[in-house]
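Weekly structure sync - notes
Attendees: PM, LS, DV (DV joined late)
Agenda: review two folding runs queued last week.

Item 1: First target. Sequence and structure tokens pasted below for the record.
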Amino acid sequence: MKVLLVFPPQWTPFSPPLTLPVLTGYLRHNGIETIQIDANVDFYNYILSKDFIRKVKSHVDTFMDRCNNMIGTEKNLDILPEESRIKYNVIKGIFKDLGPWWPDLETNTERAVAILKDPEKFFQPLCLAEAIYHLKYSLQACGLAYFPSDILLNYYSNFNYKLNTESLKLASEDKEGNIFLEYYEKKLINRITSEKPDIVGISINCNTQLIAGITLAKKLKSVLPHSHINIGGNLFTRTRDVIENNPGIFDNMLDTVILSEGELPLLKLVEAIRDKNNDYTNVPNLIYKKNSNIIVNKENEAENINNLPAPDFKGLDFTQYLSPETIFPVQSSRGCYWKGCSFCDHHHGFKYTVKTPQKLIAELKELTEKFNAKYFYFVDEAISPNYMKNMSKRIIEELPGISWYTCARAEEGFTKEVCDVAQKAGLKLILWGLESGSERVLKLINKGITKDTYLKILRNSSDVGVWNHAFVFFGFPSEELVETIETTNMLVENKDIIHSYGMGPFSLGKYSPIANNPDQFFIDYIAPTDQEFATATDNFTTTQGLTRDEVNNIVLYNTEYCAEMYGYPLWLSIGGYKDHIFLYLSKYGPKVLSYSPDEAVQAFGSF
């Protein structure tokens, strides 16, 4: 019995995902032969290759030449079909920036990828900023060739595709618009079929992976008719109602879906298939189609995280990641211990469980011994201050010299003492969900903390040398313009302790307390949607506060305004990617990222 696990595009290609090693470790521990493939990073290396970019350029050039011949010297665009006219105008607009780089695009792309993987050039600020700059254009060119695709290092969409079953089926056969198909047909499918797996598991954790994941499942069903195709991941846990009422999702695309935590359900599924009885009755968390009916099995109690084997990264090619150092994802807890934020549904379907510090340290030690691991990212929803303190004391004693970063919820327990111990244990960066600078909005969110308190906590962290990254959003239901200004001012006036930030418009989570109680949050209408697998929506109205158009304009304005007020620092110039920020912090400390790229070279030398 052979299981092959795949992590499909699109996800950031800087470090390994945790989901595959977790499942691989569990299956191998139970004697199941398991292969894991990070198809996401392999895909990025494929489309950022010299040959693919050359092909992209040729496609775009041919299209533009054909259009220019049709419209003639009078530039009469009405001659073009509507879709071609839209595509022509988009390309012309992008070429205003892209044009000078177009002739050398494949060479610059190859050089940029090499810089991201080079342990010397990556840490030269101007080199890294230039590489990120060029890759933006490289990926824009890929999107133009598969118009109207939009792909970045941390995002994918195609405006022709909706997140519903029928659209997914059409997208899976769309050679002109589906950017993943060529990679699958030229490379990945052959790699998978050569292994002759009995079961293929595809992990889909977010909307940006949905097109790629379902396309892969459908292709595998046609070339591996005797293999069992299973999908799982957080996305389907959060949209289980769609699966439960949608027999069509199983037609020629997949066999089963696993919800919530997948270790035991996947093992039970393997055992059921190995026994060849086609009886899935005892496989917990499973959804499947039997005859014309959808069967939903009972969910099992989540296993104690302390009884699970360590994640197994063996088989992943670390040289593929667009990073000079491997940052290993680790996890000290599952779920969220607060579970109180009114906007959040990330914990939906997951029970909060915590690893003992002893087990966590043992897993970190294993990674350092097997892979010489030095850099770690805690993928927890949030680490509590007490756990961070205890964990950090153990790291100082048993694993000195490692570096790590994490998410945290601003709480009074993050005293200067706790932050200092964590910094001494290698903590370089904390990602804080601050959300808003308005006290009224914070109360509606149920953050359980005031602005003054969270600023005091960030001061504690900053004072001991930890970099603070703040996440905020604009347009919480009923939020007024003056309250968005409070958030903007909070960022700008506290640049000394809020070192970097991420901002965006508020989206309404499908399973959030707000969506379940819209009247309590001034929401008078949530538009119905045919985007079945969308986990959030922007299409709602409120009885008071900003409109959605106003919110989007505020985000655009603040994106530029805050960048200017922060002085267009290096952390923005290198894309604002948390992995890259973390590596720079680990090598140089916090000062370098606050300078502009040119200032960084002047202040710190050429490195």
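Item 2: Second target, run right after the first with the same settings.
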Amino acid sequence: MPAHLSPPARPPPNGGKLAAVRRPPAPTTALATLLLALACARPFPPSEVSALRQDVAACPLPLTDAALDALETYASCTLPASVASLVRNDYADDELELPDPDVLARHAGEIPRSAFEAQLARFVDPAGALAGTVSVDAARGVLWPDPVLAPALAIPFAPEPEPEEAACAPGRCQGQLLPPPKPDRPYREARRTELLAAAEPGRPLAGLRIAIDPGHAGGPYGALEERRVTERGPDGRAVVLQEGDFTLRTALELREKLAADGAQVFLSRDRASLVHPYPLHAFRPYAERLLRRLDLDPAYQRLLPLLAPSERLRLRAALALLAVKKQNRFESLRARARAARAAQADLLLSVHYNGAPGPGGARAREEVLAMVRGAFDEGRLYNPFYRWQALEAAFAIDTFDASAHLGRLCVRAMSERLGLPVAGEPRYADHLPIRDLAGRPTGVDAWDGALLRYLDFPAVLTEGPYLDHPDELAALEANQKAPLMTPGTRSERYAEALHECVLGFARAWLGSERNPFGPWRGPPRTEDPTSRPGGSG
């Protein structure tokens, strides 16, 4: 029976309380720009203040550890979007460890400088934010990842191929796929040899280790997530749909399909669960950090005089709860990544359902899409740990190619099985569309998602049917009532699509297929990879 992955039993520091930490200040210019923008922000209109008073009226005082651990607290104490938007998304996502030199050192001599610089400009750091923190010595053929904080560390590049490929300048070739630096070597050659040795007739996935991550938590933890949708059915009944419930059902059905073909399958959770081992009150220090930052925020200070003293206290409680919710989410994502790494997975699929609004809040067109690691957020590159993760991603071209290939196979299968179009241009400013060599979107985006950021093997996050789309309501409600593995339900079709894309990926891997997005643009080859089964043009 496939195994379930529990999060590692790592106790929080300070005997159950997560320690408050300091991080380096943001650059002076960025801080000045932020303060100026906040100082010039519009005042809060009376309608928003009135909504705030109603939202925080039920917030508990005092905010005890018991209140922080009680899920009903998060359902009763909320914030309007205008106030919640004051909170930066990255304040709780700081990596506290110092960079590990081995993360980059293992790539020594692996790829030529031109390939590294092209990957950096195409998918990892398209804005060029790393230019002022790293140094490339072209004469010696080495990268100095941090000549200030780590002056002794130099990562040598591989020799340049003949003829040398021109480097990709920032802004010129974003999203264009790069030819693999070693086109005749399959992804993780050692594992390919092991899988060929483990092959069994009729079990095409024998020996393959697959991690499945059912996104979010579901069940009673829906109040902690912003992934609960309440829709009115044709008869006026309220239908409650939680993304974490549907992702879990899809993952359980996918596990059965993959295991039947011989795969070793690991789930980050097999029930409604927070995944990480910490009580929610352990995240109180992050709430304290948030409130200290907001005390310096001009927009927040303009809001406080509009509230009575008791309302200000309840607003602080609501903001503290928001901080706990955010840190819970980030710690959950890190725990999921740790579990997948501990399983030594060959690939990971993080299963999600969609519900994003279109422009102006309108219902968006239903589309399927996938995301892979890339397009690192330049606003977080002040952090050395985070900066080195971005550099490591620029070296790991094989992993990126494999992830993009897997994602492309998945969106194609999802489109066919679910009857939904593949996404075209992204609606999200922080996504970078991956295009084939003809310039067409593939339905796969590079994105700086926290789970993807922590993984160094092929990993894809998929977005399936829209929970809040009226055309899906009847099918999703019927899905909730049907037994697991009922053929034709939305979750079963979604699971079958992901099963098909893993089969296609495994066939390509075992067949040594490389760069399936288009023909090799370097020295002539005897075979065009797009002519092989599973290739794409």
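Discussion on item 2: The longest strand covers residues 347-354.
Action: LS to circulate a short write-up before next sync.
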